[in-house]
Structure prediction request, 172 residues.
Amino acid sequence: MSDDTTPREGHSGYERLRGTKSIAEILETAMSFERSAQTFYEDLVDRVSKPMRALVKELAEEEAGHYAAFMALKADPAVQQQIGEQVQIPPSDHRFSDYIHLPALPDKPDDQSILQYALGREHAAMEQYQSLASEVPPGPLQDTFRFLAQEELEHKKELEKRYYEVVHSGGV
Prediction:
């Protein structure tokens, strides 16, 4: 009977390892995500309607702040000691990573399209950071992921409010 269980154990160990990323990889992906979000919003500022400009500028600044938080985290000596540790890949990782690639938008994208994309992006970030907060060791890494999950939730709420206003005001 032990011959039957040995391959399964090896297979499950391989599957478990394959379902992990190092903290360094997690940070690099998160930094790419935040940098691409910043770029996305900065590039939109002059292309969106006047009522959307302040929101888009604010989102660009928030994403720049998140990127800076990850840069500081990466330099933190406590995090440096954990950088090679493996953590479970969150179920949302694929969708989160997909948002690193920016969509092609027309020269003058409509508010609703921008808000829909931004809502999806903020939701993916919130899920990713919530999952990572439960996977990483306690300390600055976990604190940062919890903080950023809350920030992304706040962004999402603001975007939902704006989306409701745009859709129900007849604007598209």
